[in-house]
Design goal:
mainly alpha; single chain; about 90% helix; 3 helices; about 130 residues
Length: about 130
């Protein structure tokens, strides 16, 4: 009779362990989804800034240079050069901001959580094996 109780209690313990591990795996999957969503939004903004920087640089080259050539009068040259310089400066600033916002790294919180889960499962298995 005592062995039936211990075997059923071991079975209950194992079933509980499996349920907890499944629940934990589901929560970690949700965490990974959330982290990847945040990363995708941040990288989307960074790529958008790169696109705007490219557009402004293209405008500086394809609009500024013809204007500079057409109005080759000394005062107009300085104005056109300042205009081109402003576009290039804005493009460089947007490109730098986009570069610093761009983050290409694995989801650190999920990796740490998976390591903790692995350690927890190993502890649970070793304690229920005794």
């Amino acid at each position: 009779m005592a062995t039936d109780k211990s075997s059923s209690s071991s079975a209950d313990l194992a079933a509980g362990l499996v349920d907890e591990a499944q629940r934990l795996a589901h929560l970690e999957l949700d965490l990974a989804k959330q982290e990847l969503k945040e990363l995708a939004i941040r990288n989307g903004v960074a790529f958008g800034l790169f696109a705007v920087a490219g557009l402004l640089l293209t405008l500086a080259i394809f609009v500024g240079i013809p204007v500079l050539i057409v109005v080759w009068i000394p005062n107009h040259v300085v104005a056109a050069a300042i205009w081109i310089g402003a576009y290039v400066l804005v493009a460089l600033i947007l490109a730098l901001v986009g570069r610093f916002m761009l983050k290409l790294a694995p989801p650190q919180r999920t990796i740490a959580s998976l390591k903790e889960t692995k350690e927890w499962v190993l502890r649970q298995i070793s304690s229920s094996a005794r």
